[in-house]
Amino acid sequence: MLERFNQAMEHIERQLDGSVDVGELARIAATSEYHLRRMFSALAGMPLSEYVRRRRLTVAGAEVLAGERTLLEIAVRYGYGSGEAFARAFRAVHGVGPGEARRTGAVLSSQPRMSFRLVVDGSSSMRYRVVHKPEFSVVGAKARVPLVYSGPNQAIIDHVRGTGDRAKELLERLSDQEPHGILAVCDDLDPGRAEGSLLDYYHGVATSGPAPEGMAALPVPAGAWAVFTVSGPAPEAIQGLWRDVFTEWFPSNPYRGRPGPEILRTRMSADGRTADAELWLPVEREDR
């Protein structure tokens, strides 16, 4: 799988002065656009669109300093409709406008070409199972929150704190299937999974019943789920699990992600320092 991802990276390089079609990249990588975007974000630490933009402006920066083309010619070559749009994008990456960079020979930023490889040290293994579930609903208190990759997510903390004890007791009674108990459910994430982008967050339960008044319901279609478990310091162990699933498990197993909510079941220790967690991700078999 990583070999195909690297072929997709080579295709991006050939298209920096043209159109980068995500559908074509997914075809080269032999996966879906949805899974390609999620995998790239997890492996690279940035959205695919951001990487393409930075690579374009890295190559454009070299042409600006070379002085062989006018700034407008360079802007048009790399897909910008005007010199002003090019200058704004250029400054956002390099910290200086293209005209000033050419006049002064300014120091520019460079986004290196990416390639991916799998490093296996054999020191640990991931615990997982695959579950096939019929359709069900997630019912609970819903909020729109930003995506945070590292450290506490204050918006989620505030949302959970704002859910009253009576509402939590009601939700507990509604839980009638795996994963049991009150859950953290993320849905409608930005395809590029950029940090700070917004998502729907449910403090809720998996149930076959209807939503009570004042609660939101998210219908979840039938399908397969990969279920991962981890124990350790909170939230670092849980955030590390998300990273390892995308950087280690997906490249090593014949599955890819499919559209659907991402579900986390967490049980905190009495002192709040450690947690036992179960991560449910919607998956489908992938031919390789």
Structure commentary:
It is a single chain. The protein is of the alpha+beta class and 288 residues long. The chain has 10 helices and 9 strands. Strands 1, 2, 3, 4, 5, 6, 7, 8 and 9 form a 9-stranded antiparallel sheet that branches. A hairpin with a 5-residue loop joins strand 8 and strand 9 (274-285). The longest helix has 19 residues, at 48-66. The N and C termini lie close together (8 Å). The model has no long low-confidence stretch (mean pLDDT 89).
Beta-strand content? 15-25%
Mean residue pLDDT:
89
Question: Which residues sit in consecutive blocks of at least 5 with pLDDT less than 50?
Answer: none
Ends distance: 8 Å
**C-alpha Rg, in Å?**
22 Å
The number of distinct helices, counting runs of at least 4 residues, comes to 10
Biggest pleated-sheet summary: 9 strands, antiparallel
What is the oligomer described by this structure? single chain
Helicity, as a percent range: 25-40%
Shape: elongated
Number of strands: 9
In N-to-C order, the SSE pattern is HHHHHHHEEHHEEEEHEEE
Kindly name the structural category.
alpha+beta
In short:
This protein is of the alpha+beta class. The protein has 10 helices and 9 strands. Strands 1, 2, 3, 4, 5, 6, 7, 8 and 9 form a 9-stranded antiparallel beta sheet that branches.
